[in-house]
Amino acid sequence: MAHDEVDPAPVLLRTEGRAAYLTLNRPRAINALTRGMVRDLAAALDRFDDDPAVAVIVLTGAGERGLCAGGDIRAIHADAVAGGREAFAFWRDEYRLNARIARLRTPYVAVMDGIVMGGGVGVSAHGSVRIVTERSAVGMPETGIGFVPDVGGTYLLARAPGETGTHLGLTGLPVGAADAILCGLADHYVPSDDLAAFTAELAGADVHDAVRRYARPAPEGELAAQREWIDTCYSAGSVEEIVHRLLTHGAPAAKEAAETILTRSPTSLKVTLTALRRARALDSLEKVLEQEYRVSCATFGSPDLAEGIRAQVVDKDRNPRWSPARLEDVEAGTVARFFRAGAEGGGLGLVERGV
């Protein structure tokens, strides 16, 4: 997507020994993805996955704040306000990249240190070796900006234990290392102080041997102890019933979750719940990405996306005016339109042609 780059090389590539290192290099934007970065990553994966001299591909983020804060939503906002269609091309390239990462033959080590949100999950959590640290904050916050979890996020969340994925998808709340591992968004915990040595060792060591040397038990998380109310409340058939169960359950954390959900876009909440339930029945990441692409393109025409980004990122007044403003005013027919085949934007071609 069009955006003025302040970093001369937004994706850095280097090889050392048997490893290829890819570094997202927009630290001032917490390495938010532009379309150019997505294309650079895709080209690098094509190159290194076919190189017999490369035994492992390692993804990291520049700076101290995180691997990747997501897609460049300021650019998406500008495109939506202008009535453009660049977002469709960005999402098409991005989702194809997500599928490519999941199907790599070469081990792909994603270092999910710091903030890993939205599109950051897409370039990391589909990898074969996913590393989190004590600084990791992993989440899909889309309902807070009038959007819906994408980049294969509904595939991952739909397969999380019990209803933990529904909880994360509707609230948009991030989780730390242990809970990311519990939910299937990550594999191993490595203390941040050991990351430099760990990633350097991958240049000469077998990736699994290196993981065994550096991985440690993750500090205790929160979700395992909350499974009772999460599974009970989020198994309801509608967002309204989920909120009711959360408010009346009695657990303080359940009430807090309900209060968080009620600040999110009502339309996004209902579409997200439908997307998650439908994703459970789809048997491949590619099929889920095709569904997400239809939903994303439909969401682009919804007033809540531009309004949510305005409130959270552009004006930062944190006071989005959702339309409609109440869950009960979002009609079933409105939700169904987001999933209609042949929606604007076309498809990705992943299921028909492979990636």
Automatic annotation (TrEMBL):
Kindly give the InterPro entries that the UniProt entry links to this protein. Answer: ClpP/crotonase-like_dom_sf, ECH_dom, HIBYL-CoA-H
| GO CC field | cytosol
Alphabetically sorted, this entry's keywords are:
Hydrolase
Annotated GO MF terms: 3-hydroxyisobutyryl-CoA hydrolase activity; isomerase activity
Species for this entry: Streptomyces tsukubensis (strain DSM 42081 / NBRC 108919 / NRRL 18488 / 9993)
Q: Which reaction does it catalyse?
A: 3-hydroxy-2-methylpropanoyl-CoA + H2O = 3-hydroxy-2-methylpropanoate + CoA + H(+)
Alphabetical GO biological process terms:
L-valine catabolic process
| Record's protein name | 3-hydroxyisobutyryl-CoA hydrolase
* EC identifiers of the protein: 3.1.2.4
